[in-house]
Write a structure and sequence with these properties.
This protein has 7 helices and 9 strands; from the N terminus they run αααββββαββαααβββ. The protein is of the alpha+beta class. Strands 1, 2, 3, 4, 5, 6, 7, 8 and 9 form a 9-stranded antiparallel β-sheet that branches. Helix 6 packs across helix 7.
Length: 225
């Protein structure tokens, strides 16, 4: 890496705004606050997919050693019960969750100088819930779920397209595509939810709701930025 590039990286600075986040404005319900922030992010033209969240899991690598992996998934439901996303159960993330249910989620809403970070425990939703959601997906996405052995080695793009074409012939557009047995949802039950609002002079606001897995009550604490 050249000195010029590193100098340019070090010079990258942004002055954040004056909008803050007070305890009184946050309230005592982090899910309600998240819903408000999500609605505002969805209305922001500079945020492409407001429901995109970074999921980190702790699994193992090819040698069996512990390995943290990170990827972006889409939030498809939020409630007092938690944050739900759908995926292939045989994927790397699915295998990691089977080994260790502790996960983190991050919503990076840079355009609004905000982020929400969540830590919690992931568990499969019911088969019925997975089937109900699968039925609402576009036909192409349904076929793609059958075509992909997610996270497995792939010899070529042509192999994937052939598998897709085979599934499309089996279930032509307009027919009912069944939910694959290897596909479904996970719900992350949050133990901490932290709201970060960028502020001037790097004096950011960090409000964290915390609880343990035996307590449904939230405790709200402010942290140094």
């Amino acid at each position: 890496m050249s000195d010029e590039i590193n100098a340019a990286i070090r010079a990258m600075r942004r002055s954040y705004g004056d909008e803050g986040l007070s305890e009184s404005a946050a309230g005592d319900d982090p899910i309600a606050l998240f819903a408000r922030w999500l609605a505002q992010a969805s209305a922001n033209p500079y945020i492409v997919e407001a429901n995109a969240m970074v999921l980190s899991t702790l699994g193992t690598d090819e040698s069996g050693a512990d390995a943290i992996t990170t990827r972006t998934v889409l939030l498809k439901d939020v409630s007092q019960g938690g944050f739900t996303f759908f995926t292939n159960y045989g994927s790397r993330k699915g295998q990691a969750i089977e080994l260790n249910s502790q996960v983190t989620l991050l919503f990076p809403w840079y355009a609004m100088e905000r982020q929400v970070s969540i830590s919690g425990l992931a568990a499969k939703v019911s088969q019925q819930e997975s089937e109900d959601y699968f039925a609402t997906r576009p036909w192409g996405s349904q076929i793609g779920a059958w075509a992909s052995h997610q996270s497995s080695p792939l010899a070529s793009r042509e192999e994937l397209e052939q598998r897709y074409e085979g599934a499309a012939q089996k279930w032509p557009e307009g027919t009912t595509v069944p939910c694959p047995p290897h596909w479904g949802g996970y719900r992350v039950t949050p133990l901490t939810i932290e709201f970060w609002q960028g502020r001037y002079s790097r004096l950011h606001d960090r409000l964290r709701y915390e609880r343990d897995n035996t307590n449904s009550n939230w405790e709200l604490n402010r942290y140094y930025p």
